[in-house]
Specification:
Elements (H helix, E strand, L loop, with lengths): L3 H33 L1 E9 L16 H13 L6 E2 L8 E11 L5 H5 L10 E9 L9 E11 L19 H8 L4 E4 L15 E12 L2 E8 L6 H14 L4 H10 L14 E8 L2
Parallel strand pairs: 3-9
Antiparallel strand pairs: 1-3, 1-4, 2-3, 5-8, 5-9, 6-7, 7-8
Length: 281
Amino acid sequence: MSAFFPNFINNCISINSIIIRSVHRLTLKMNRDTEQNRYIKMTLEYDGTDFAGWQVQPEQRTVQEVVETGLFKMTKKKFRVTASGRTDAGVHALGQVVSFKTDTSLPISAFSKGLNSYLPQDVRVINAEMKREKFDARKNAISRTYRYILTKQPKVIGRQYCWYPQCSFRLNPMIKASKFLKGEHTFTSFCKKKSEGYYNNISTVHTVEWKTIENEVVFQINAVRFFHNMIRIIIGTLLEVGKGTLTPEDFKRILEAQDRKFAGPTAPPQGLYLVKVYYNN
């Protein structure tokens, strides 16, 4: 009987040790899984002048390539970064949102502040946050706001941030015509020919706004999604209305025609900005 209690105690200690080790391993695994499932949401500002657009392209300087290179230099790990939308060559961003998955244990400040040390002067991280749940900058976006700036006078300083169309135009007919954009429409007339055609070029425009600041005219639009060259073709067509070549009613008919050949020319990229991307929560 006297030998029973020491053996019993030793067995209990062994069982407890096994349980503690098992819990420890499970905790480590859960921590590793948590680290592997970290999603980073970053907001970027960039000057698109010297970029061939967002998406990586062979032997071209792109925003995606610069950001991914910066991440590699900082973490020694390769990343594939997803953007809320692909901006074309020469298009700027005040609030482009990107996302990527990481297993690094670096603090979020490394991405919000430290990464800027590895980026060129024409790209900056202005905010970063960690997402425990899966986050995709493009798929999770619920709307985007873009801005286009026209100038009524030619510029030398700042010419890469607006468009001078070299003609006079009346703003009131353009404002009237732009009201037809609001609501859900098929925007094929304002999409580049042979575009991907995803969502059948259907989107919903929530707001259209105009502002005049000295010699600049600012057009701002918010919609669920935008298609290739959509805003630039809209601007080119609205300018035809401002010049008197088209009427606001013509603009409405062009929208309804769902045929690119009826719309105006594509405005150049330097006046276009991705301003903000919206998400739930």
